[in-house]
Amino acid sequence: MIAIDIIILALLAATAVTIARIRDLWAAVMFTGIYSFLSASWMLNLDAPDVAFTEAAVGAGISTVLMLSTLALTGFKQGRSGVRIVPLLAVVATGGILIYGTLDMHHFGDPNAPVQIYPKESFVQKSQPDMHGLPNVVTALLASYRGYDTLGETAVIFTAGTAVLLILRREKPRSSRPGSPESDSPESEQNTEGASA
Amino acid sequence: MTHLFLATSIAILVTMTLALIRAMLGPTVFDRVLALNMFGTKTVLLICVLDFMSGRDDFLDLALLYSLMNFIGMVALLRFTEFGDFGGENLE
User: Fold this and answer.
1) B70 vs A contacts (CB less than 8 Å)
2) Residue A114 domain-assigned (yes or no)
3) How many structural domains are present in chain A?
4) Out of A36, A41, A94, B23, which could bridge B35 as a Cys pair, Cβ 3.0 to 4.6 Å?
5) Using CA atoms in the order A147, A151, A156, A157, what is the torsion angle rounded to 10 degrees?
6) Which B positions 14-53 lie with beta carbon below 8 A of chain A?
7) What is the chain B residue with the closest CA to A40?
8) Where is this region: Disordered (chain A) (predicted)?
9) Do residues A1 and A73 share a domain?
10) Residue A43: how many CB atoms within 10 A of its CB?
11) Rg (chain B; Cα; Å)
């Protein structure tokens, strides 16, 4: 299992470097598909099938389609950009801080980790007065404590979806602007250029 | 038996590496499409092997979902390459 983990992580790193370096954005979208397939199978290897499920559906399915429709609006080639020192240093420093932060984490599957021992007793003892007499602990956890969590997640996902749809729809009022009869031609020209790229 | 599964998954991972190299080098669009499709298929196989290796049969649904996602993504990519958009009326 360790060998599989190491190989998958190496493939993930190679894919990420390729995504960062490639100039053909169409190929970059394809590499993001490969990346999410790889990361989902890695999560499956770590015994997290629900996360892998979400990653497969959202990462490999929806986001590929969304990125392709974005490319239809923006074009396929990225302009030239050299290596800039300050952003590179900022990224390296942030990564170093994050790796330093993982040193304090408990070992994977550690039975003494707080997530394994901490919340159970307080939830059992306090859920009834907290939830105004709800008799079932499982109902209290799912419907009340996690209800806030789910509400927040739903708000975030709704906002993100609205933003993506607004970005993808941006061309429409511009092309149907009154007083420009040939307003459709730049869009179709852009599309044929995209198909030949 | 576990050694057999491990050897199989390593072989699948080697194939995935070769497909990834093809996708990186691939001069034409269709080399890359083929590499990505093969990569998705190998992912499905890898999930099945991991599933049997860990002895829990409930990941096979995930393999099904992966093959569906691979198919949908492939159709979207090919339509997009062919038409320049998704070719649907609702986008116009």
Assistant:
1) 37, 60
2) no
3) 2
4) B23
5) 90
6) 16-17, 20, 23-24, 26, 29, 32-33, 36, 39-40, 43, 46-47, 50, 53
7) B43
8) 171-197
9) yes
10) 19
11) 16
How does DSSP assign A79-140, residue by residue? Answer: PP----HHHHHHHHHHHHHHHHHHTTSPPTT-TTSHHHHSHHHHHHHHHHHHTTS---HHHI
Q: How far is B38 from chain A (nearest CA, A)?
A: 10
Read off the pLDDT of residues A158-191 as tens digits, 9 standing for 90 and up.
Answer: 999 898 888 777 555 555 445 444 444 444 444 4
Closest CA to B49 of A8, A22, A163, A162: A8
A123-142 exposure pattern, b = at least 16 Cβ within 10 A, e = fewer: eeeebeeebeeeeeeeebbe
Quote the ipTM score: 0.82
Closest chain B CA to residue A175: B92
Domain final position from A49, A79, A109: A79
Q: How confident is the model at residue A93 (pLDDT cuts 50, 70, 90)?
A: very high
Closest Cα of chain B to A127: distance in Å? 33
Q: Token digits for A63?
A: 């986001």
**In this structure, are A3 and A70 located in the same domain?**
yes
Q: What is the pLDDT of residues B17-57, one digit of tens each?
A: 898 888 888 778 788 888 888 888 888 888 888 888 877 77
Token readout for B78 is: 């090919």
Determine phi and psi for A188, rounding to 5 degrees. Answer: -70, -35
Containing domain of residue A9, as a range?
A: 1-79
* Residue A197 forms part of a structural domain: no
Beta bridge partners of A24: A77
**Choice between B68 and A125, residue whose per-residue pLDDT is larger:** B68
Please compute the mean of the pLDDT values over residues A35-50 and round it to a whole number: 85
In a domain, A195, yes or no: no
Residue A102 within any structural domain of the chain? no
What angle (nearest 5°) sits at the alpha carbon of residue A116, between those of residues A115 and A118?
70
